[in-house]
Amino acid sequence: MRFGGLTAVSDVSFAARRGEITAVIGPNGAGKTTLFNCITGFYRPSSGSIRLHPASGPAIALHRLPGYRIARAGVARTFQNIRLFPGMTALENLLVAQHNKLMAATGLGIGAVLGLSRYPQAERAAIDLARQWLAATRLLERADDPAGALPYGAQRRLEIARAMCTEPLLLCLDEPAAGLNPRESDELARLLLDIRGQGTSLLLIEHDMGVVMRISDRVVVLDHGKLIAEDAPAVVRADPRVIAAYLGEGEEDEDAPPTEVPA
Ligand SMILES: Nc1ncnc2c1ncn2[C@@H]1O[C@H](COP(=O)(O)OP(=O)(O)OP(=O)(O)O)[C@@H](O)[C@H]1O
Ligand SMILES: [Mg+2]
Prior knowledge:
This protein is an alpha/beta fold. It has eleven helices and ten strands. Bound molecules: adenosine-5'-triphosphate (ATP) and magnesium ion.
């Protein structure tokens, strides 16, 4: 991905496997969010390809699709800076996420005019799914509160609930633990393991190494837009190139503990 003269992500090739949590880590400015923006269609990559392999059927070339088609293909995301609809209730935020399904159920309006709409059933199913994810994220009792009035940690959980209401094959999370206290981070880790357990694959950008090391199946490390490591968490955390990337080149301190990526 190039921005004018700046190459933000270059020659990065890896696979996020089905049913796994793949973490994407790296120092600030490494290109992690840019990578997500390419996968989810916010940017169209300058070159290269990104493919989604559904359990059945042919691979889908995401790099050729507009964002709304990528979402429909089964890729959902959350944002580094929370992007909810603050004036809508928590429940309404989760219903908006199911807009595609609901529109299809109206027969794009024609069925409704003819009184043939399946809309009431579809709406009930959408509310049920929303309530299921409100419960899973401990937000059920806040269902009717405006999203913007929720505490920060609750807003982060609501973003995950909203993404899950699209019933994605792949969930992309951009720093979901940012700003959470240790108890909330633990709870988040459990939620992500539950989501994996239900069959959704995850791509996880995260600076909280406690969370990354505990729940990831694989870790991909970016530095200056390049992939510098891809392996199991324990291998990556002991990789000298990864440690150097985090400490900054030429800034290694002899007194610093050499074998751990800083949290
Ligand atoms: N729209 C854009 N136009 C120009 N440059 C951009 C754009 N988006 C990102 N960049 C640049 O691309 C590089 C990678 O940025 P990116 O936001 O992907 O990093 P990151 O790994 O997510 O960092 P952080 O951990 O701070 O979130 C940076 O140099 C950034 O300034
Ligand atoms: Mg980022």
